Structure formats: C-alpha cells, structure tokens
What we know:
The structure holds two protein chains of two kinds.
Chain A: H1 3-18, H2 20-39, H3 44-74
Helix pairs in contact in A: 1-3, 2-3
Chain B: E1 10-14, E2 17-20, H1 21-42, H2 50-70, H3 73-96, E3 106-108, E4 113-115, H4 124-146, H5 148-155, H6 161-202, H7 208-238
Amino acid sequence: MDAEIMNLLAIAITITIGTVGPAIAIGTIGSNAVKGISRNPEAASKIQTSMILAIAFAEALGIYALVVALILKFVE
Amino acid sequence: MLEIVIKAEEIFKIGSYVVTNSIILSFLVFLVLSVTAVILKNKIKLIPGTFQSIFELIIEFLLGLMDSILGDRKKSEKYLPLIATIFLFILASNWLGLLPGVGSFVMHTEHTTIPVLRSPASDLNFTLMLAILAVFATNFFGIVVLGFFKHIGKFLNFSNPINFFVGILEFLSEISRIISFSFRLFGNVFAGEVLLTIIFFLTPYVVPIPFLFLELFFGAIQALIFAMLTVVFLASHTASHEANDH
C-alpha cells in the first residue's frame, strides 16, 4: 500500500473513531443532567450551567480528532 | 471550487509583516466594535433606546453568568472587561465571518485564487492568541489576588513528593488549557467554513440556509463557552481560602 492510500484510510478512521467517545460522553452528561433536574427542579439553572461546561470539555475532544483529520487531508 | 487551506493566505506585506486575509477581517471586526462602543458612549441615556438596550442585555447576561460561577457581584464587575472583550470579539468575528463577501471576493495571483476575507477564528494564530491571553490573564489575576508566592506555591509545592508531582501536573494542565482553548475554537470555526464552502459549491440557492443558521448558532455557542471557561478558571485561581476577604 502506498502512502496516499494509507493517508486516506487514516483520515477516515481518525474522524470515525474519534467522534464515538465524545458522542457517548455528551449523551451520558445530558441524560444525567436531565435526571438531576427532574429530581430537583429548583436547581435547574445550576445544573444547566455545569452541564454546558462539561459538554464543552467533552466536545473539545471530538474537535481534536477533527483537527487531526483536517491536517492529514489539507497539509501534505 | 476554492482551495481549502489551513494556513491563512497572504494578501500583501507591510515591510516584513505579512497581512493575511484573516487579519484583514479581524481588523474590520475591531473597527466595527470600536465604532459601536464610541457611538454608545456618546449617546448614552438614562432611559435606554433599542440599540443601548441590546448591549445592556448582553452585559446583564454576562454579569449573571459570572455571578453564578464567581458568587460575588463585585468580583464579576472587576473581571467583566476581560470576559466581555473575549466574548464580544469572538462573537463579532464569528458572525461577521458569515457575511456574503467573506470567501467569495477573490484575488488572482500567479498560481491560485485566494479569498480576500476569511473568518478570523479559522486562523490558528487568532485562537492561539486568545487562548494565551486568557490563560495568562487568569494566572495574572491569581497573582494579584493571592500574592506571588502563594500562586507559585500551587505549582512548586515542596512539602512532600506527592504534592510536588501534583504541582507539576497542575502546570501541565495550564499548558493543556492553552491547547484545548485554541483548538476548540479553531476546529469549530474551520470545520464550519469547510462545510459552508462545500455546501455553497454544491447548491448555492436555498439549501445553505439551515447550514448558515447552524453556523450562527455554533459561533455564538463557541464565544460563550470560551468566555465561560475563562471565568471558571479565573474562579479556581482567585479562590481565596480566608474566611473574611473584602
């Protein structure tokens, strides 16, 4: 296999596997936040702020995978 | 279709300083924000009109956000200039980067055609600058509030070997914050630009509308997240452990 084929494969695999982890993480964070709000509706705004913060951290990891894939594609 | 490059393309040079297309648009963003600020200051009224009310809304929203994280209105007002600058600058550059001229006005050089304007945050230099500014500012405010030796004492802790190791890890986590701040904003905006370039190339009419809404939404969210994360790290650095502090 020459380098170009490996490059294309690497791009595809990076972005495919790289978004699985953050997807699961964001789903878990969201569902636990909703459960927390349903148990204690008065704390809704605090839970919401923490949820948004945690989702930002989790999403950043997916963005790292995207940036690696973009660099592989657009920089020789 | 226009070439998609990660590095911002050079338009002209002033001496040996390269002016790229993202620098041109970020300068325009700076002009827009400055002119808005001067107009608001000259026409400030006790009972605000519509224009002033929008900005009062934004400031109140930011102050409320900072209150919920910092816990004290005085602290929020003290750190509001930094946070509001970060938020408004990123918001304005993301939204102005969606205007119709960006990416479509091109100039032809010998080898390629390059767009004259490009979303500022799609240039890694811009996001890296903001990330370094945010991390250095939080550490600086930590030094101002806690005193130099107490702040450094978090990173160089010689009391026992475990604490020393934890201090090194804290220092590494500061560095990783710079990287994560810059790549989060860069990845979101650059991916949005690539998406819009491809969609506008495939179907220029009607279909891009939901994608433009997506980019509006994500641009605002990324500005908010950058500002909010800066507040959180500011809170953790300036948390003083004495019971009575004014």
